[in-house]
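ENCODED BACKBONE
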Amino acid sequence: MVSLQGEHIYLRALEPEDLEFVYSIENDTSLWYLSDTQTPYSRFLIKQYLENAQQDIFEAKQLRLAICNTKNKTIGLIDVFDFDIKNKRAGIGILIQNEKNRNLGYGKEALSLLVNYCFQTLHLHQVYANISESNSASLKLFKGNGFEIIGLKKDWSFDGETYTNEYILQRIKD
């Protein structure tokens, strides 16, 4: 079994106590462009989501984990989505909530742990990410973890005023 424990962070399943943390992320309108969210989420809906978070990835087709530092403080979330067991692939998304915790290596370590988990435990053949052309930090993070840009989706996202392009990045198991 692959460890979800790194040197500076660890990944863990979501708990009921994560309600306010998840609520604050899901309702931060400045982050909605990352996940194509268009409406706020109620605490009730997030509570229901957390109650169902114990669902197996093979059933739910997704997995969301909390990123925690060595002081057991939750600093972000990392997701496996569109889990496709037939084709042995899944998407990955990551968010470090507070800017002061970014560019410190936490995202790099979390991504590395999750990719290893996907390849070693879930036996996936490939993982991918969809990243806005303007999100240079995420592009650097994923490319630094062995992901390659395999395409550009032009005018992919609309923010109400302009269209933006989105890269698709892929990493195939060695």
